[in-house]
Amino acid sequence: MSxxxxxxxxxxxxxxxxxxxxxxxxxxxxxxxxxxxxxxxxIEDGFVRAIRGFSSFTDKVxxxxxxxKLVALVLAVLMYVIVNFNSNSASLTxxxxxxxxxxxxxxxxxxxxxxxxxxxxxxxxxxxxSGDASNVxxxxxxxxxxxxxxxxxxxxxxxxxxxxxxxxxxxxxKIDPSNVIITLKKKTTRQFDLxxxxxxQDKMDAIYSPGVPQFEYNKVNVRASKDTLDSIAFVKALxxxxxxxxxxTQDAKLxxxxxxxxxxxxxxxxxxVKVTVPVTSPNKTVPIExxxxxxxxxxxxxxxxxxxxxxxxxxGTESVLGQIDKVVVTLxxxxxxxxxxILRPITLPTGVNSSNINxxxxxxxxxxxxxSTIDGVKINYKNNTxxxxxxxxxxxxxxxxxxxxxxxxxxxxxxxxxxxYVDMTGAxxxxxxxxLQVDQPSGGLVxxxxxxxTYTLNVLGETxxxxxxxxxxxxxx
Length: 477
Hints:
By secondary structure, the protein is of the alpha+beta class. It folds into five domains: about 15-90; about 95-185, RNA Polymerase Alpha Subunit, Chain A, domain 2 (Beta Complex), CATH 2.170.120; about 190-280, YbbR-like domain (RNA Polymerase Alpha Subunit, Chain A, domain 2, Beta Complex); about 285-365, YbbR-like domain (RNA Polymerase Alpha Subunit, Chain A, domain 2, Beta Complex), CATH 2.170.120; about 370-465, Beta Complex (RNA Polymerase Alpha Subunit, Chain A, domain 2), CATH 2.170.120. The chain is about 25% helix and about 45% strand.
């Protein structure tokens, strides 16, 4: 029992201590709250005193004439700062503006192309695109174009404002030029005969030749203004022969040209024609002739030339081949001083497309050169177009010719094989001197030179009915 009593006393002692602690904590909290309240009260009192002091100062300053100008200045500065701050803030929020030039923008026209011919409209114009940077970049990369709206306009001259399309609604487009003067002319129709040109002949094998084409029709209608139609000289079908090796048929494009060969813009109806073209391979075999130029050095002369090919087959049109009877290969004697084997190219005559060989090999033999004079060479007359009678005062009808070459070649020359003549082109009646000329022999293995180059003739005013060439002073050609 005594133990229980002791426990009870201990418990009561503990409770008393706990109550004392709570009381002490409450007192501290009360004191702290009172300090905070006093602090807020002091702050509030100080703030009120400051407002009252500022209000009193403001009243003294604002309502005192002495400080009126100063107050006005301060207020002006304050308003300036506020306004500029607002402007700068607005500029910071406004999108960045930009502009970009674009040149050679295509200009198109809206008009009745079947009725009118348009002239004076530029093919391109320059523009300046302005707006937000991103929109300007997008518009500059777009496929925009310039339009001249001519719809509803009649024949004659008009001033038209150009407009931009396809650049978007978020940019401004300035066009240069912004206005153009155009002319509308009514179209009429005229008929033209067809001619033709072969194109891409360099892409056709040279051994082939296109013949005369056959057209589905030989006339076409051309629609344009009267002035344009008057400028057209011919309408041609452009026939493409590239790669053709046999007869072919194609739709050839038609193009109008003026007298200078410049294309003319016009409506050709229809704009193509079906054409059939024969393809042939005309050829001709002709001899190869070596022509020597210049003289061998050191008194030498060419004695003979032997070629590995004596003929060549050439290809071209029938008309060209008909005018060719040989192919000439040149040899420069100034580079030859001894027996040599020389490779030389074949130069094709104008109009010949190709040949079966393009070079020949020549075996050239060289010997000592000798000179000989041949007398009694007859003098002939050429180009006596007026059929004048003529006589030589001293009755001289022959001349002498000096021949140079190897001994064998010189020995083969006779007076009858040399042709000396007087060219009577421009001859007039009366006594006058003419220049004697001599034809050089083919091949050039020997060289002819005249001993005398002057020949005197008395040309009579009467004409000679005999137009055959003779060897006397009265003979004419």
